[in-house]
Each structure stands twice: as C-alpha cells, then as structure tokens.
Amino acid sequence: MSILVTGARGGVARHLIGLLREAGQEVRTASSSPGAAEVVCDLADPATFPAALKGVTAAFVYAEPTGAAAFANAAAEAGAEHLVLLSSAAVLDPRADDSPLAKSHLDAERALLAGPVPATLLRPGSFSSNALAWSWPVKAGRPVSLPYPDSHNDPIHEADVADVAFAVLTNPGAPGTPHTLTGPASVTFAEQIDILAAVTGTPIAVEQVSRERWKEEMADYIAGPHADALLDWWEANVDRPAPITGTVERLTGHPARDFTTWAREHADAFRPSA
Ligand SMILES: NC(=O)c1ccc[n+]([C@@H]2O[C@H](COP(=O)([O-])OP(=O)(O)OC[C@H]3O[C@@H](n4cnc5c(N)ncnc54)[C@H](OP(=O)(O)O)[C@@H]3O)[C@@H](O)[C@H]2O)c1
C-alpha cells in the first residue's frame, strides 16, 4: 500500500506524513510547489497528476475544485482504491452553494463523489490554528479586534484532523461516509482569548470592532466576499453553542485535543520575543 499525501506544506498534511512514516507506511509526499516535496502535484493542474499518482493505492487530497474530477480519473487510472478529501463543515450550511466559504469544498466533494474511486470526506469545523491570526496584535501589545467576541466555534486541532485522516486511510471502513469533525467543546472567541492569556501569562485586550472596521483591517488577507461570509457565520453563532461531534474519538480512539492544549503548544507564537 502506497499513500500519496498532497499539499505537503500544509499543517494537516505535515502531521499526516509523520504519522504514516511512524507507522511504517509507504508514503509519497507531494506539493504544488516544486522542490517542497518528493513530487509536484498541483491539484489545479492535471498535467502533474499521472507522475504523482503512479503506483499509489490511496491519496489524501486538499479541496481544489478545478482539478478534482481530473484527479479522481487519474487516480482510477493509476489503480488507486481510496481518496480522502480535506473538505469543510461549511458545506453543511443550507446556503453552501452561495457561500464563498463553502462552495469550493462542495464542488471538490461533488467531483470526487461522482468519480470512479471511492472517496471519504472529512469536514472539520474551524481550526484551532486560526487563532494564530491574533498572534501579531498580541506580540505587538495591541488589542485583538473581534467583531463578534461572543460568537461560538468548535476549534479542532490540526493534529486531530490528521489523526482522523490516518485512521481512514489505513482502515478505510466505509468510504463515502462524510465525517464532521469538531474539537471537544464549543468556545467563544472571547473564551479562546482568555485561554491564550492564561497560558501565555500575558493579559490580552479585546476591542469589539464593527464589521466594516474588521474588513478594513483584514483587507490584505481576506477577500471581501469571503470576509462577509465569515462575518455572517460569526454573527449567526453569537450566544449559540456550536454542535460538537464525537467523531474524532470514535475514529481515532482518543478524545479530541482541546483549545487549551493547542494554546500551550503554540504559546511562544504569542510572546513578544517570537
Ligand atoms: N482553517 C479552517 O478553519 C478550516 C476549516 C475547515 C476546513 N479547512 C480546510 O483546511 C485547509 C487548510 O489546511 P492546512 O491547515 O493543512 O493547510 P495550510 O497550512 O493552510 O496550507 C495550505 C494547504 O493547501 C495546499 N494547497 C493549496 N493549493 C494547492 C494546490 N493547487 N495543489 C495542492 N495543494 C494545494 C497547500 O499545499 P502545497 O502548498 O504543499 O501544495 C497546503 O497544504 C483549507 O484550505 C480548507 O480547505 C480549514
């Protein structure tokens, strides 16, 4: 069994590659960036697929909708028997087809499910590592701008997403089943900030800002329609605890890591010297 891991520079892929190697699995690492992994696999460029897929039995795939159908066909031609897609819980939104957050994931899911190779969909909620966006103001001693401090989310550690990917790649069970993945608890952004402050021993101020102000601050990083979709999602989840699934524990045999665990591991990123 030889497993292709695409997106080798990504947080989830890096964890997954380590797990597969530790378990003695044959693994081929692929990146869209030449030289960053063993082979080039740009999921938007089908010309890169045959060489990357040669001889593999399964693949871990990031959600890149433009090349997903071609990837599934190339995987079948190479003899692969299982694809595992890193999708998103955003696809569960009833308006997913109109949401820039969800649409690319939805299109990638549909392309793989319509293809000839059985596919398993992983749908994580928001990553704990999204909190790294707050490290810059915290290190600079500035308040963190939050438009909706009391919005709930379900932060999941990227290592848990990788653990689930490892579990389904090495023990496919029922390919085709979508798995909605969350952290172990619903927490608000304000609570996440409190956890980071406690773990780093640094007081962290929060400034509640308007939607417009937040969009302005993030304009260089998040495109307008994407920012609007995020803001709408956060607004809808003010004072509304996020539903939590036990899927990480069911598939991996261990409880999902909580946000405090993630914060302890990444505390240095929030300290002024980092
Ligand atoms: N952040 C969240 O809250 C959240 C929630 C649900 C789902 N997700 C999903 O998780 C992904 C982020 O995962 P992560 O944290 O592991 O990644 P990351 O650290 O943000 O890195 C981005 C990843 O996307 C890959 N990628 C981008 N364009 C690619 C292409 N054309 N071909 C192949 N790979 C490509 C990159 O791979 P290379 O550069 O090595 O090619 C890299 O692995 C998001 O893109 C989203 O689909 C995120």
CATH superfamily of the largest domain: NAD(P)-binding Rossmann-like Domain
Q: Assign a percent range to the helix content.
A: 25-40%
User: How many helix segments?
Assistant: 11
Structural class: alpha/beta
Estimate the strand proportion: 15-25%
CATH architecture of the largest domain: 3-Layer(aba) Sandwich
CATH first level of the largest domain: Alpha Beta
- Low-confidence runs: none
The overall average pLDDT, rounded, is: 96
- Morphology: globular
Structure summary, number of beta strands = 11
Quaternary: single chain
SSE diagram, text form:
Blueprint lengths: L1 E4 L5 H12 L3 E6 L7 E2 L8 H5 L4 E5 L2 H14 L3 E5 L16 H12 L4 E6 L10 H5 L4 E3 L5 E2 L4 H13 L7 E4 L5 E2 H12 L5 E3 L2 H8 L5 H13 L10 H6 L6 H7 L9
Parallel strand pairs: 1-2, 1-4, 2-3, 4-5, 5-6, 6-9, 7-11
Antiparallel strand pairs: 8-10
Bound molecules: NADP nicotinamide-adenine-dinucleotide phosphate (NAP).
Task: Produce a short descriptive summary.
39% of the residues lie in helices and 15% in strands. By secondary structure, it is of the alpha/beta class.
Description:
With 274 residues, the protein is an alpha/beta fold. It folds into two domains: 2-124, NAD(P)-binding Rossmann-like Domain (Rossmann fold, 3-Layer(aba) Sandwich), CATH 3.40.50; 126-156 and 182-243 and 255-274, 3-Layer(aba) Sandwich (Rossmann fold). The protein has helices at residues 11-22, 49-53, 65-78, 103-114, 135-139, 158-170, 189-200, 211-218, 224-236, 247-252, 259-265, and strands spanning 2-5, 26-31, 39-40, 58-62, 82-86, 119-124, 144-146, 152-153, 178-181, 187-188, 206-208. Strands 3-2-1-4-5-6-9 form a seven-stranded parallel sheet, with helices on both faces. Helix 3 links the parallel strand 4 and strand 5. It starts with a strand and ends in a 9-residue tail after the last helix. The mean pLDDT is 96. Residues 6-13, 31-33, 36, 42-44, 62-64, 86, 88, 124, 126-127, 130, 158 line the site of NADP nicotinamide-adenine-dinucleotide phosphate.
